Amino acid sequence: MRSEPRPENRERDRGQDRLGARRDLYAVAAAALLVAAAVVIGHAVERRDGTLRVSRPPLYANWLPHVGPGTPAAVAVAVLIVAYGPPLAARLPWRGLLGATYAAASAWVWSLALIDGWHWGIARRLTTKYEYLQVIDRFQNIPEALRGFTGHILADSPAPWPAHTAGHPPAAPLTFVLLDRIGLGGGGWAGVWCLVVGATSCVAVLVTVRALAGEQLARRAAPFLALAPAAVWAGTSADGYFAAVAAWSLALLALSVTTDRGRRTAACAAGLLFGLTCYLSYGLTLIAVIGAAVLLLGRLGARLRVLPYAVLGLAVVPALFTAYGFNWWEGYRLLVERYYQGAAGVRPYVYWVWANLACTVLVVGFATVAGLRRGRGALGLLLAGALLALLIADLSGMSKAETERIWLPFATWLLAAGAFLPRARPWLAVQGVLALTVNHLLLTGW
Fold this sequence. Notes:
By secondary structure, the protein is mostly helical. Helix content is about 70%, strand content about 0%.
């Protein structure tokens, strides 16, 4: 028979719980002050000289209080996840939990996007003058377009690429070219692709957390991954799609170093997807930092056995693009020059180096901040890898503003910190309210 804890032990535990709760609130208060400072100082700088190049600092957004067709659904999804997410996450069979989390995350991101309506919220997002769909016709001959890709990166080059095409390796625009080739052309299908694929990120994170830190923590993280404030931006840009590819590369790597069955195949697939990740976005090479944390948490013998297969898979995408004439290193060199030809040339590093972190608070939510404070063990190390990758990106100076979408592939992993919170429902409510507030008060860019 299990004995009841002694009164003095119960009192000690209650005291520790109260202390932990206070520290959570201190962390959240500090994060809120960071956001407030970024708003106040940002508006002062923008009014003074306009160098921030955003109308609602620190976010790339416009002030536009509104409701839309997605509003009732978004509120309903948030309420249902807060009410039923934690108990269902604890009870559902594992595969059922993965499916339910994907369904909930999909409902959340779709409903948030539709607050702005089908046209503005989904179909138009990837058709603006900055976006990938502007270059579909220039890829009629794909090998020729790849050979000449770097010749159009600089702003003063002949027929320069739009900002997002110039700012990414060619796998990013090529994704939408191939969708167009199979009959899924236009902004509507492009938006659907990013929403449907991007929502799988939460499943990849759950698979990784279970493999490295245990099923209990993965189950506790599931509602926080489903009800993520990050969905505000994952539903409005291709970066949600990039985040999913990167997340699955790490999930497969985690499986390869923690299981015996199919580990070589998993390692090859992990390398293949990481190679694709690097050709979707130059900055996502930093996913390797999180990958290093995954390897550290895997079994030593497994690490040594799977690495050659991971490297083999990794070589595939670079070999294909190189064979067709695209030089990744030359593209990156020219991107740096193009980056400073645009808004980054005037945006002050001294502001954005810390205001970017305020953007991240809004993307991951205050529950994540409280959870990160409690981080420990294997999951804590995984979260530390994501934080380190994000900080390197920040200090590089190549992420001045717009990080609410650019850093989605890193921020997605931080959401798992919710697993450390002892009371899920109140914190989930905070996450939902934050996302709904941002999406209803602002028209977010991209």
